[in-house]
Amino acid sequence: MKSDSTTVIFDLNSFNKIYLPYLHNQSRYLIIYGGAGSGKSVFAAQKILIRMLAEKKHKFLLARKTAKSIRYSQYSLLKSLISSSGLGEYFECRDSDISIHCNVNGNSIISAGLDDVEKLKSIFGISGLWIEEATELEYRDFLQLDLRLRGKSAFYKQIMFTFNPVNVHHWLNTMNLKNSVKIKTTFKDNQYIDKEYESVLKNLKSQDEDFYNIYALGEWGELKNLIYKPFEVIDEPPQFSEQTETIYGLDFGYNNKTALVKIKIKDDNYYLFELLYKNKLTNSDLISELKEFVENKDSYIFCDSAEPGRIAEICSSGFNAHPALKDIKLGIDFVKSKKVFSFKENTGINKEVLSYSYKQNKDGEILEEPVKFNDHLMDAIRYAMFSYSKIITGFNIRTL
Questions:
Q1: I want to staple 220 with a disulfide (CB 3.0 to 4.6 A). Which of 165, 195, 256, 283 is the partner?
Q2: Contacts of 254 (CB under 8 A, 6+ apart)
Q3: For residues 208 and 362, what is the distance between their CA atoms, to the nearest angstrom?
Q4: Which residues contact 364 (CB under 8 A, 6 or more apart)?
Q5: What are the pLDDT digits (tens) for 261-270?
Q6: pLDDT tens track for 272-286
Q7: Strand spans (E) along 77-117
């Protein structure tokens, strides 16, 4: 594979075989959907990097509902693949504006969220697009992105979608896009899947059939038995004074995502700010993130009590960290009893709340226990709200 005078060899063994027939697919819309852990996003990133090196005059756009979420998803994945594939000399990754530039031919990858309409409108000359978590987008969002892909180009233009098929009524399922190809895959198609995560997906069958069908089998579905109503999403937070109480909830992860949520409490209302939603974080990495995100080290941080060693290390770094109360039922009841506000930027929170469900056994009986999947931000929110009210303010949850 040649790009100018430089020959770059990609090991095809690093690709999941199911995706290889689509490596040179030129449809305008390449819809890659299915179960979790199927390697969808990895393939999309691999295809972009190959085109960046093999073709000229490219400007690829990474898009999601919000710009902030791109940094920890598509951009992070592309950086990781560049490093692991030994391609560092060919690319320059610029964290400042979440862009990647090809040193061989001047091609570039830029990013934009649907929350920054003015920036999006000013983007021209796009030759390719990758929309991650495409079900976050409304149809009018898609139309705005589709308009970016126009004009003459030496090579084919393509929009790639990657997503889990959570809602059978979503426009991506009900609308037939012309000149499109769909690929449905599951974790069984991913020869490189983490075995622990594979076990998590298989275990969904014993927790909830709907979750298993969507996230393991990749079938379009509709989740039932939701625990919370969607949090009310507002455009701007109210004015907070210096005396406004600020607390944090922290759910640990490594293969699973680490989740950090800041919550401001005003007039008995709770305002959520999603700060961190990222996997592969060591405790040292996490402490560095806390130093960036936690404004005041005296603020309470309520953490997953299952990992006391990690909490102790965080405390030794000067943070006011505490093990959270783990009574799930009472914690959920408390969150339900309060007015909770979110924002458009909280893409992880707004997505998780729509799939945070009670288990349902094979007999159809609904259990008062959440499905343990895609619940990290929900746990962090519950840790902070319930623990602060019970431990710090002495609120008696049993009076609800």
A1: 165
A2: 279, 280, 281, 282
A3: 8
A4: none
A5: 999 999 999 9
A6: 999 999 988 999 999
A7: 91-94, 99-102, 108-113
